[in-house]
Amino acid sequence: MRKILLTTLLAMILTGSSALAFVVDLTTPNEPGMPVMTYATVSGYVDAVDSSIFHFEVNLASELGDYLNSGKNFGLDKFYFNTDLSLTEGMFLNLDPDTWNVSFIKQTAGFGVFDLELTDPGKRTPSLSFDIDYMNAVTEANFFLLSADPAGNGNGHFAAHIAGFSYGEFGSIYVRDGETPPPVPEPGTLLLLGSGILGLALYRRLRK
Questions:
Q1: What is the pTM of this model?
Q2: How far apart are CA 20 and CA 46, in angstroms?
């Protein structure tokens, strides 16, 4: 019984120390005539089972299309991010090669130079999700980096292009995140981390 309890506590400790995530809003447009608001949200996290896999999700804000008077082909058609890893196209999983293309090192609408650009030249979508399998362990910090070089419209960790709408004189826009702090654990991760700390304390008490 004691061995079973110790094994369970160790599992809690290991689980509680993993799976940090970031959730970032893209709020800053490249056009001064467009409002500063949440246009899209980018989330990323390390897979809970395989630490070499990183999950990305990009979602346009709900009711954004109504606010911008969207047309039939409204949506997201470009996404930019940075990394300090040496990625190849073959590492991208669950990304339809017939619709989304991967390019490396791209200048973006005055937001600086990004390491990667994902483009969907045909069909725009309200969301984008994909995985990266790096073969070795990764962390959220590997994908939370500012764009390089001077940027007239400010540097960003992430950027996106949204098109197919009519708002004043604008029909498309590039947006980036603000000057956000480094990623922090989400509430679920904090709960797991707290469980791990509690498990460690109980484990030490049982050993006495």
A1: 0.78
A2: 7
CB 125 within 8 A of CB 76: yes
Q: In the chain, where do the E strands start and end? A: 21-29, 40-46, 53-60, 70-81, 92-93, 101-107, 113-119, 127-133, 158-167, 170-177
Q: Which two tokens stand for residue 101?
A: 């293309």
DSSP conformational letter for 142: G
Query: By C-alpha distance, which of 31, 130, 165, 144 is closest to 83?
Result: 144
Q: Where are the alpha helices (DSSP H) in the chain?
A: 2-16, 64-67, 187-207
Mark 96-133 as b/e (b = at least 16 C-beta within 10 Å).
Answer: eeeebebeeebebbbbbbbbbbbbbeeebbbebebebb
Rounded Cα gap, residues 60 and 25, in angstroms: 10
Single-letter amino acid, residue 37: M
pLDDT tens-digit map of 44-85: 999 999 999 999 999 999 999 999 999 989 999 999 999 999
Within 10 Å of residue 154's Cβ, how many Cβ atoms?
Answer: 16
* Residue 1 CB neighbours (<10 A): 5
Residues 83 and 144: their CA atoms lie apart, in Å, by 7
Coil/strand/helix, residue 152: coil
